[in-house]
Amino acid sequence: MTTLPRTAGELRAAGRLPRGVKDEIRENLLARLRAGAPAWPGIVGFDRTVLPQLERALLAGHDVVLLGERGQGKTRLLRSLVELLDEWSPVIEGAELGEHPLEPISPQGRRLAAELGDDLPVAWRHRSERYTEKLATPDTSVADLIGDVDPVKVAAGRTLGDPETIHFGLVPRAHRGIVAINELPDLAERIQVALLNVMEERDIQVRGYTLRLPLDVLLVATSNPEDYTNRGRIITPLKDRFGAEVRTHYPLTVAAEVAVVRQEARLPAEVSDTMLAVLARFVRNLRDSSAVDQRSGVSARFAIAAAETVSAAALHRSALTGEDPPVARPVDLEAVPAVLRGKVEFAAGEEGREAEHLNHLLRMAVAETARDTFAGLDLRPLAEAIAEGNLVTTGERVPGSELLAALPEIPVLHEVAARVGAGPNDPPGRIAAAVELALESLYLTRKLAKDADDGIVVYGP
After folding, report:
1. Peptide bond into 325 cis (omega under 30)
2. Closest-CA residue to 430 (of 441, 420, 443)
3. pTM score, two decimals?
4. pLDDT (tens digit, 0 to 9) for every residue of the chain, 461 residues total?
5. How many CA atoms lie within 13 A of 128 on its CB side?
6. Can you tell me the distance from the alpha carbon of 214 to that of 37, in angstroms, rounded to the nearest whole number?
């Protein structure tokens, strides 16, 4: 930072001329694309769908609205736009708006530039300070977004006719940056009207003042399709001013869903990718179920919360049994429906059957994952070992070593463990997680009887 210009004169000599924020984003995005560098770190599952559309919109210099159900990563995507800004940008030191020292736009900025000339002091703003996010709420006012007369400045002696009495809102203060409005339809229609001039004519009007501020902002927003008909709507003139509407979606594959959960979930106990695949399929089953109200969607946060619940159940079992390290097993999945039932909106007429639907779809997910994991593997020796009277018990108070001790030494157990990446020298809990999935698979295909009572599950003939 010490080598950066500190005055307007030094800035001009260094060739740091003003550049529009949309031009800045375009040039930085093109540089990343040409270099093959990741332009969207942390964004999973949108590579061939959403991201190309968003990139084209940014290259065109369009304001953008992301349209999609809850939990599709819209806000995460908007926040990642910050990485396309220059790391540091010059502003007039002490000015209320983030104006370029060689291109002031506000009355205060122009006055300072006229008084100080090339000695105008320059400060440097980090790109993280050039992103402004606002959650649209019914109580949001025009003053919040655009500005209002500041009574403190009036009380200090300025006249009401002085433009410098205006306290600027979020949008003008984001000059040369990005303004993100989450859940745009939740803004009252009269408040949305206040954005029309900002987006098209780039001026603002505050209590009779018309300031021709050539604002330089990228306006991005999010919306849920349900909002257009139920909670609110984006007024037609405002929709017309957005250059691009990009439709988001939930992860299209199990692998993408697992990647999202693995990236976002905080897991205090070990949860294998196989267990995460069960939860991913569970969420996908919910999104396909006619019993679920699909207008509100099933958020990716459901899968994340489910993974954290399963991990917590494994940690709880570890505390009770002394098993270390704690490893999630299929028995821990039983905690998910009861804890997360409230995160799913069911269709009308399904009242009272929520738990039934959740448990059924979870069993389907277990069966699908087991079928995929053990495809081509003959589990008959395991079924025969149970049929010969080897009862296998699992539950919250059953450590993995006890589950394994109930079974004879048969080669198929090593093959089962290997399918989930567990070796013979791994902790018992890790191997038991694979064996328990195989046992559950055999039960679901009606090759094993299963008795459950008070949190204890017994597989037997």
Report:
1. yes
2. 420
3. 0.87
4. 458 899 999 999 999 999 999 999 999 999 999 999 888 988 999 999 999 999 999 999 999 999 998 889 999 999 999 999 999 999 999 888 899 999 998 888 999 999 999 999 999 999 999 999 999 888 888 888 988 877 666 666 665 556 667 778 899 999 999 999 999 988 888 889 888 888 877 667 676 666 678 889 999 999 987 644 445 688 889 999 999 999 999 999 999 999 999 999 999 999 999 999 999 999 999 999 999 988 878 989 999 999 999 999 999 999 999 999 999 999 999 999 988 888 898 988 888 888 899 999 999 999 999 999 999 999 999 998 888 888 898 988 899 999 999 999 999 999 999 999 998 889 999 999 999 999 999 998 877 788 877 778 888 87
5. 0
6. 33
**238 to each of 173, 176, 191, 296, how far by Cα in Å?**
21, 21, 11, 24
Distance CA 25, CA 81 (A): 8
Closest-CA residue to 8 (of 85, 109, 129): 109
Number of Cα atoms under 13 Å in the Cβ half of residue 167:
10
